[in-house]
Amino acid sequence: MLIRPATSDDAPQIRALFRIILKQMELKKLRNLNQQRLNLALELSFKTKECRLSKGQIIVAEVDGEVAGMAFGYPSQADGDIDELLCHYFPKVGLPAYESLYDNDDSQLTKTEWYLDSLAVKPKFRGLGIATALLKRLPKIAARCGKTKVSLDVDLTNPKAKKLYRKLGFKQTDTLQIGSHRYHHLMRAI
């Protein structure tokens, strides 16, 4: 397994993994959108350097030349910018213009946090330690961004993921609402 920064060529596979998360989140804004256009907009966003390497950072786990998993996050000060980047291509592909994917998000990141927005592993690669390998790389990314903590949100209905995060040193700091789901906000000092 190789953990590496994502390239623009990885965008289609990253988009497919990100869609797994969006489906689980059941966001109202995305329910009635043309799914092919949504895929195109997300893929175009993930191809940008801003989304992959500067404002946001995406790393992938590669197994036998295939992207098996991805982690997508950003320093706290880029929180609003990332949402705008993800929505930027919506009108360009014929979707409604949105500033945010989320109807409500009561997240309040602190200045010290590097936030893990998304972590996903392809179903056929689950149980092989890919999520753990990606999570172990995050402190280095956070430190390069001048952050002292890595944070994430985990759906209350996903105890298996919460167990993994706790095993890796994440501790619950808050509970919040994103869309129609409740999440635990977890944090780990680096």
The strand order across the widest sheet is 1-2-3-4-5-7-6
CATH architecture: 3-Layer(aba) Sandwich
Distance between the termini: 24 Å
Biggest β-sheet: count, sense, barrel? 7 strands, mixed
**Morphology:** globular
- CATH fold descriptor: Aminopeptidase
Low-confidence stretches: none
Question: Using DSSP, what is the number of strands?
Answer: 7
What is the CA-based Rg, rounded?
Answer: 15 Å
How many helices? The count is 6
CATH class membership: Alpha Beta
CATH superfamily: Gcn5-related N-acetyltransferase (GNAT)
Strand content: 25-35%
Mean pLDDT: 89
Overall tally of domains = 1
- H-E order: EHHHEEHEHEHEE
Structure in words:
The protein has one domain (2-136): Aminopeptidase (3-Layer(aba) Sandwich). The protein has helices at residues 11-25, 35-47, 49-52, 79-87, 130-144, 159-167, and strands at 2-5, 57-63, 66-75, 113-121, 149-155, 171-178, 181-189. It is built from six helices and seven strands. With 190 residues, it is an alpha+beta fold. The model has no long low-confidence stretch (mean pLDDT 89). A seven-stranded mixed sheet has the order 1-2-3-4-5-7-6, sandwiched between helices.
In short:
This protein has about 190 residues and is α+β, with helices and mostly antiparallel strands. It is built from 6 helices and 7 strands.
